[in-house]
Fold this protein.
Amino acid sequence: MPAYVVVEARVHDRERFAAYARRVPEIVAQYGGEYLALGGAQEVLEGDWGESRVVLHRWPDAASARRFWESPEYVEAKALRAGTGDFRVILVEGLAEETLEGGR
């Protein structure tokens, strides 16, 4: 079943954050993930999002997303973003394709 990593980011130091942003897409791809949303236009439909940006990547399953998150490559890259902003990250399991096709 697919899984999604959802990131809410409020970046305060864009210059320092840039090193992280350059490194992570390669690691996401290396571990089998793909970006669905990354820095595109956002329109608030409800609530107070302030300066938050949303990043969304899809994984084949939750285990793959965890392998990425705990990988030595990502742990090293994540250190580059320390102190550059406020981040909330959640791992969400999606619906199995057969559930969607089965019309449940």
The chain has a mean pLDDT of 92. The helical segments are 14-30, 62-70, 72-81, 97-101. The longest strand covers residues 3-11. Residues 34 and 57 are 5 Å apart (CA to CA).
